[in-house]
Amino acid sequence: MRMTGLELGAPGVYLGEAQSSPGFAAVRLDVAGFVGVAARGPIDVPTPVTSWSEYQWMFGDIGQSPGGLGTAVHAFFAQGGARALVLRVSPLPRASGAGVDDAVAVHRLTLSGPDQRTAPVELLLDAANEGAWGNDLAVTCTLVATSRFTAGGGGRQLTRPAGLALAPGTLLRVWLDEGRHPTFRWVESSAVREDGRGGRATVVVLHDDLTGVPDLGVGEPWVQSLDVDVITASMSITDPAADVRRQERFDGLGLSLRHPRAMRVVLSNESLLVRPHGPWPERIVPPDARLGAARSELAVRAVDRFDRIGPGSFFGDVAPELLPVGGGADDLELYGVDRMSVEPEIALLSAPDLLWDTVVTPAEVESSRLPTYPDFRTCEGMEEPIKYEPVEPAAVLLEGGGSSLDTAMVRQRRVVALAERQQRFVALLDVPDGLAYRDLARWRAAFDSSYAAAYHPWLATIAEDRRGRHLRRLAPSAAAAGITAARERRLGLPWGPAAEIAIDAVRVARDLSDAEHDRLHTLGINVFRAERDGFLLTAARTLSMNPDLRQLSVRRLMTMLRLALERHGQWLAFEPNTPALRHDLTQAVTLLLRDLYRDGAFAGATEQESFWVHCDDALNPPWLQQQGRLVAEVGVSPSSPLEFLVIRLSRDAAGTIGVEV
Predict the structure, then answer these.
(1) Where would one find the signal peptide in this protein (predicted)?
(2) Quick one: 41 and 186 in the same domain?
(3) Residue 217 — very low, low, confident or very high, per pLDDT cuts 50/70/90?
(4) Whose CB has fewer CB within 10 Å in the chain, the N or C terminal residue?
(5) Does one domain contain both 111 and 254?
(6) Which pLDDT score is estimated for 246?
(7) Cα(555)–Cα(549) distance, rounded to whole angstroms?
(8) Is the alpha carbon torsion for 180, 181, 186, 188 positive or negative?
(9) What is the span of the domain harbouring residue 528?
(10) How far apart are CA 320 and CA 488, in angstroms?
(11) The model's pTM
(12) Boundary residue ending a domain (269, 300, 331)
């Protein structure tokens, strides 16, 4: 066993530092998952992004699709979120099925010779994912001589200069007849042979004889010296989209599949803009020894298939109770929210486009407590105020499966069932827009889960594109996800994710009265209300009927404790079940809970009143130990966020006013 930091002298026995048992650490719960409609990006693949610009590069800008995914992710990062997983749902039929010939743009590269007698080489490239964005790609392939050397040659052999690596599959251009006639040869392997002067030389073995150059016998000198060029390809891909200029360049590409940087393999594994289409030749032989560049032309034009988004885009055919817990779903075909639900990293889940066809009565975006004064006029010399277009309802832009409250509840209950199955993340639900209070109460009665939280009303944000500035709908769950993540990062998990302004919001779909707010809070629906500085999230409750799990901070705290014990307790496997091990486990869990106690996570005044950890002989009798089992019990008393301040006013006989809080 090697001990770091221990200086050894003469042979003997040296005492190293004692190895401490691994401890338990808090698990990060600020990573959000977003599922929705985008104009570009990987289909049904949870893709990590850590900034809005990174999302733009991968999935496009807000105005490029009718969905609300872009506005949701923008609000998350603007609020202070640091990491999200984004999944773009697939139109139906899916891109891997039939009838989707217009889904992905195809570009053709033609490497042609100097005249019609030379057969051209055609290479087809797909856009990396579906959508009309791929039609504008510009691809340039240039064949270049990256280096030249002089080699002795004979038959299928060429000497290789020291320090020049020529991997199998490298294409060489060999100049014969004193540099008048070029010919191409592939490197098969390397070898060492006698050079004819008593020395040894490293040679490369070619795939074919050099025409007109005789083979060499053992010990014979080299017949002649030849000029040799190493030929590689450079690929440049440009996407001239107006939102973000995307450009890739790959140099030193091999033209054979045997090359360590084969063009087809590199583009498949590294490019974010294109993919090789169909079968490519195993070896790409230039039709002209003068080399040159080829520019792509559009072979298949793609269209955006927003009108083919359907309910099946968000869910697959696998029942929630059959999904694996904690990941490991590679063998299943999962789509949309189902696919995102098995990601072990996410702790918050928002699907801003889940209800695009369930708007009961599309509500007009109203001015929220913004006063108007008809007698006032704009001062001379000042610009006219910006006039924004109304919010675009996504329901009229995407194909739907029925605009009803029942449809909304079916989909959202499925999301909650996924959260209950995984017991790792909280499903953030958007209350369907335009509901009367009676329907809203019926919607609320359909849920009873501490792994779900509801947000109301819908918000609006400002988007700017080629048409100018206009308002777009913003799912309140997206703003809530950003608030929850930022609150955890700034203050810690025990703090309730509420009492924060939605930074991106400029309007609300409905301005609630005090009486409406009171009733919604009683139902456990978290409300955004207009305040002086913006729209404030006034609560952080779950949709659970259990009073102990009514607060979102409590649900997240209990989830974090369970995940921390599961993930960081793996070191206990195969350890001997001894009193020392049980003591170490008790101490490790106690240290984790003590840190949370100091952060205000528990309600007790002392540690003894806040938590306890038991892992003694009473819980682990000999018969249990013989079964290879270890039992520990942990009890905590979570603190609940303060929701109400009761102020008592009193007046004595002298008229003095007293205030008690």
Answers:
(1) none
(2) no
(3) very low
(4) N
(5) yes
(6) 92
(7) 6
(8) negative
(9) 32-92+307-360+403-462+474-554
(10) 29
(11) 0.84
(12) 300
